[in-house]
Design goal:
heterodimer; A: 303 residues; alpha+beta; two-stranded antiparallel sheet; 6 strands; elongated; B: 289 residues; mainly alpha; two-stranded antiparallel ribbon; 14 helices; 52% helix
Chain lengths: 303, 289
């Protein structure tokens, strides 16, 4: 033999059956132990590495992560058929499971091809062919995580994330709010809607800041959930065309100053900052000049 | 790469000189096969000429031929996921091919790790390293069983996190980082710890393909065995030396065919034998001079 293997047994005295059996059992035990240890190690490593890092997104149509790791054979056919080189395969040591496809939105976002070639390429169904409309993809969910740096929150009109969104006005809308700092401007706040956001990552990619204020995360990280039994009263009311519990006695709210003082709790608030010189908003304090800096009323600003 | 001998007995001294082609024919064919398989995947990303997409785990050749690793599909099925028909058809084609031709033909003609372990074995012979401890050859079957159980228990393709075979092939095609350490580790293991340690004793893919090839057609035989002068060259180069003896020395069988499933049909024994004892043939060729 070529290796330094020891001779199987000494030729002088043939070992008794018990010794041969012991040797056999020893070798089987060693092989079994070694084999099981290696397999166990691989299994444990796979468990520890199975958590997807926060910024790694799966291709469109990907099964839920645990199912994905059962189905994906790491062949890279989705990567090959991605026309924008968005997808890449992870390597051993990367935080994503070895060999599986993913993308980072800030580097190359998903361009949301209408024919979804990556899903068509997948031979195993790790990318589910039930996804035929790319607008229904749920690769992740955008979240405007940094309200302190987002230019729109600072009162500027950046709007870039809103404008690049492939599902504009559905996945991201601009919500007008009063700017309490200047007291006379609007803030148009980019607001993500989880029912329409595909997680393509165009918003994160195009955020003009050095570090994006809007980021895309796997949905399990970005999305909360209401308890299953919760119902939104106003939605139920609209669905049934009226209150389900009959007319309620409306009690005025007392003890507050400010624009909503004296209104009943169910009254719809319209134009909270509309000047109301002739309507006494707080009947309990008639004709009293509003205190300085209270809600910004009467700032004496003239255009 | 020069041929080496176990007993420091130069080949040329004791035999009529054979040409380089005669001495290295099967090695050259095998390396060509390994390189061509790799090139089929690389002409696309390199030159835009797409022959095969994907990698050895699953691929699509010329846009029509799906090929999938049957062991991988078996693991997928054990996790409870039923893959699409393209993966199943691909696995069936590969399965049929290796059942017919020879299971471990994969190891010596397609697998990229084979080049690494051959290099380690060559270096080990050259440096005369005798150290280390060889694990039991049955370890690979335990490992094979272990990875199937791991797939069923964890519900994921656990082995694919570390599988050096797919790691290397994928790395060569899609770019390599941490996988290099595993491959380097295998080289060092084979060089210093266990002769032919990975492919011959541990690799569960090899074990799986070995089981597939138990009744395969393509075989190496020793029809000219009476010419054997016991130079031991074939034992020195054979990655599974235990398979030669039954055929060459009529131990437990009359047939000159190497029938053991462990034989990778690499043909190295044919190359190195100056007496031309061996030849590549089929399962039913019982001719012996």
């Amino acid at each position: 033999m070529d290796s330094g293997r020891k001779p199987a047994r000494s030729p002088s005295d043939a070992p008794p059956a018990s010794a041969a059996r012991r040797k056999f059992i020893n070798s089987v035990a060693a092989a079994a132990g070694g084999g099981c240890l290696l397999a166990l190690g691989a299994g444990l490593y796979s468990r520890s590495a199975a958590a997807l890092p926060a910024q790694a997104l799966r291709p469109p149509g990907a099964l839920p992560e645990h199912d994905f790791l059962a189905a994906c054979v790491r062949c890279g056919l989705c990567v090959r058929d991605c026309p924008y080189d968005t997808l890449k395969l992870s390597d051993l040591g990367d935080p994503v499971a070895t060999g599986t496809p993913y993308f980072h939105a800030r580097q190359v976002p998903c361009e949301m091809c209408e024919d979804i070639p990556c899903v068509k390429a997948c031979p195993t169904g790790a990318l589910d062919r039930a996804l035929t409309d790319i607008n229904k993809a749920q690769m992740g969910l955008a979240a405007l995580v940094d309200h302190e740096s987002c230019l729109n929150f600072l009162g500027l009109r950046c709007d870039v994330c809103y404008r690049v969104c492939p599902v504009i006005d559905k996945a991201i809308t601009l919500e007008t709010q009063h700017n309490p700092r200047s007291d006379r401007h609007a803030m148009l706040l980019p607001t993500v809607h989880s029912d329409a956001c595909t997680g393509c990552g165009k918003c994160e990619k195009s955020c003009v800041l050095p570090v994006a204020a809007i980021k895309v995360f796997p949905r399990v990280l970005a999305q909360g959930a209401l308890p299953a039994h919760y119902r939104k009263g106003w939605e139920e009311k609209a669905r049934h065309g009226g209150s389900l519990i009959g007319e309620q006695v409306e009690m005025p709210v007392r003890g507050f100053d400010g624009p909503t003082a004296g209104r009943s709790a169910t009254e719809t608030v319209v134009a909270p900052h509309a000047p109301a010189p002739d309507i006494p908003v707080a009947p309990s304090v008639p004709a009293a000049p509003p205190p300085k800096g209270a809600g910004g009323l009467n700032s004496k600003w003239k255009p | 790469m020069a041929t080496t001998t176990l007993n420091a007995k130069p080949q040329a001294a004791c035999a009529p000189a054979r040409s380089l082609w005669q001495r290295q024919r099967w090695l050259i064919l095998r390396r060509s096969s390994q390189v061509l398989i790799l090139l089929a995947f690389l002409t696309g990303p390199w030159f835009g000429l797409w022959i095969a997409k994907g990698n050895l785990s699953s691929s699509l050749t010329l846009g029509v031929l799906p090929l999938t690793d049957p062991l991988l599909v078996l693991q997928t099925l054990l996790t409870g996921h039923v893959p699409y028909s393209s993966a199943l058809i691909g696995a069936a084609i590969v399965l049929g091919f290796y059942l017919l031709v020879g299971g471990r033909v994969f190891c010596s003609w397609a697998c990229p790790v084979n080049v690494v372990t051959d290099a380690a074995a060559w270096t080990r012979r050259r440096l005369g390293i005798k150290t280390g401890r060889v694990p039991d050859a049955a370890t690979r079957y335990w490992l094979l069983g272990g990875l199937l159980v791991a797939a069923a228990v964890t519900g994921t393709l656990a082995w694919e996190w570390v599988n050096p075979v797919s790691l290397l092939h994928r790395g060569l095609i899609f770019g390599m980082g941490g996988g290099l350490f595993v491959i380097g580790g295998i080289f060092i293991y084979d060089l210093l710890v266990a002769s032919r340690g990975w492919c011959g004793h541990l690799c569960p893919m090899g074990a799986f393909y070995g089981l597939l090839g138990k009744k395969a057609l393509l075989r190496v035989a020793a029809p000219n065995r009476k010419a054997c002068d016991d130079c031991m060259d074939c034992f020195a180069v054979c990655p599974e030396p235990q398979v030669i003896r039954p055929a060459l020395k009529r131990v437990g069988q009359e047939s000159p065919l190497i029938l053991a499933a462990d034989c990778t049909t690499c043909g190295r024994c044919i190359d190195v034998c100056d007496k031309q004892v061996f030849k590549m043939t089929h399962r039913f060729d019982q001719r012996s001079e």
